[in-house]
């Protein structure tokens, strides 16, 4: 990413009333870049950069009509690939064509989903979880009813099953679905499992992940994006690091979610908690709390305006509000979902008007 040219692009595109706020974030980011160049990227410097990037992306979303609905992350990448700001479709009223040879995406043609739930692990270092499998087993019929073609992988299957969540099996299914996805399709990938940060990179723990062989047996979140590089609409939801009360609901790696968000360019990411919080389970319902409200949102409760569809933003807002309310009512430590939408706008995840047997009234 070329942050400095991205800042230049953003300033050229924003309307005058946004420049004062932009100048504040620009100064903070430039200072952060200088600090990293001088002293290296420390955890605190990385955390500050994540916050600044989030603010700049929010500013870009607020004035999306001036930016052709591109995020600040997008501008940093366009800056690297192009020589002039006219690579965007709209620059201060001037019309031009995108430099990409791909046509703009049309309405969603087909929806696909890969669900991965892992309660048990081969290595004792990874404590057993309780409700990851039930999470994906509940999501599967809900998404199927919404028109998704679903592949469900979980640890209650036979170990010889091609859908048993070995790391190689997961990559194989990701690759297969990526190849099956057409230009105007959407792919939703959901993980309920352990998550960890290894060598500054967020990784997901498969059944056969070995703590001495993370590079070969874990699943870096960045690799999910690489395997699915041809997918133009990719949604990733992570109910990771939620552990049962018997083993303590601690996040072993507090920067896990922050690092995931730094990689969330060109797709929608919704994670179960912030980097400083823990994802929890709801014993009475047999689900992760995050996945429970994810299910409720998909079943129609996130459609608060009666539009007969739910977008990624609708789902994010519903899950966030529900998690806060649940934490207060149950006197639990605050758990808030976190989300990042980059480059693709507000995608429709569920359309009820197309269903013969609607989920919502």
Care to give the gist of this entry?
By secondary structure, this protein is an alpha/beta fold. It has eleven helices and 15 strands.
Structure description:
The structure is a single chain. This protein has 361 residues and is an alpha/beta fold. The chain has two domains: 3-92, no CATH class; 111-351, 3-Layer(aba) Sandwich (Rossmann fold). It contains eleven helices and 15 strands. The chain has helices spanning 3-13, 19-39, 43-62, 72-81, 132-145, 167-180, 214-217, 221-227, 256-262, 289-301, 312-329, and strands at 90-91, 94-95, 111-117, 148-154, 186-193, 195-198, 201-204, 219-220, 234-240, 268-271, 281-282, 287-288, 309-311, 338-341, 348-351. A six-stranded mixed sheet has the order 4-3-5-9-10-14, sandwiched between helices. The chain has a three-stranded antiparallel sheet with strand order 6-7-8. Strands 1-2 form a two-stranded antiparallel sheet. Helix 5 runs parallel beside helix 10. The longest helix has 21 residues, at 19-39. The chain is globular. It starts with a helix and ends in a 10-residue tail after the last strand. 43% of the residues are buried.
What is the fold's blueprint, element by element?
Elements: H1 3-13, H2 19-39, H3 43-62, H4 72-81, E1 90-91, E2 94-95, E3 111-117, H5 132-145, E4 148-154, H6 167-180, E5 186-193, E6 195-198, E7 201-204, H7 214-217, E8 219-220, H8 221-227, E9 234-240, H9 256-262, E10 268-271, E11 281-282, E12 287-288, H10 289-301, E13 309-311, H11 312-329, E14 338-341, E15 348-351
Parallel strand pairs: 3-4, 3-5, 5-9, 9-10
Antiparallel strand pairs: 1-2, 6-7, 7-8, 10-14, 11-12, 13-15
């Amino acid at each position: 990413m070329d942050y400095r040219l991205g800042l230049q692009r953003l300033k050229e595109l924003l309307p005058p009333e946004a420049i004062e706020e932009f100048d504040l974030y620009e100064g903070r980011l430039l200072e952060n870049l200088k600090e990293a160049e001088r002293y290296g990227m420390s955890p605190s410097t990385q955390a500050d950069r994540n916050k600044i990037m989030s603010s700049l992306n929010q500013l870009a979303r607020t004035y999306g009509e001036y930016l052709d609905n591109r995020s600040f992350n997008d501008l940093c990448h366009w800056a690297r690939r192009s020589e002039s700001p006219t690579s965007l479709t709209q620059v201060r009223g001037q019309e031009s064509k995108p430099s990409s040879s791909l046509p703009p995406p049309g309405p969603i043609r087909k929806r696909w989903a890969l669900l991965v739930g892992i309660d048990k692990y081969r290595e004792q270092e990874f404590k057993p979880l309780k409700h990851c499998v039930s999470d994906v087993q509940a999501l599967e019929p809900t998404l199927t009813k919404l028109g998704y073609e679903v592949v469900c992988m979980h640890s209650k299957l036979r170990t010889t099953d091609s859908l048993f969540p070995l790391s190689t099996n997961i990559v194989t299914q990701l690759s297969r679905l990526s190849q099956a996805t057409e230009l105007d399709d959407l792919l939703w990938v959901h993980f309920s499992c352990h998550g960890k940060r290894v060598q500054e990179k967020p990784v997901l723990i498969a059944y056969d992940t070995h703590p001495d062989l993370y590079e070969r047996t874990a699943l870096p979140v960045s690799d999910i994006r690489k395997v699915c590089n041809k997918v133009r609409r990719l949604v990733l939801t992570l109910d990771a690091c939620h552990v049962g009360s018997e083993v303590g609901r601690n996040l072993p790696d507090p920067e896990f979610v922050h690092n995931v968000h730094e990689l969330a360019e060109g797709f929608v990411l919704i994670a179960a908690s912030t980097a400083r919080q823990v994802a929890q389970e709801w014993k009475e319902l047999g689900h992760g709390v995050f996945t429970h409200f994810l299910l409720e949102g998909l079943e129609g409760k996130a459609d608060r305006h009666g539009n007969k569809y739910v977008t990624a933003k609708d789902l994010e807002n519903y899950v966030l509000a529900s998690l806060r309310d649940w934490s207060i009512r149950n006197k639990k430590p605050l758990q808030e979902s976190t989300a990042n939408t980059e480059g693709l706008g507000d995608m429709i995840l569920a359309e009820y008007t197309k269903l013969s047997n609607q989920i919502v009234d």
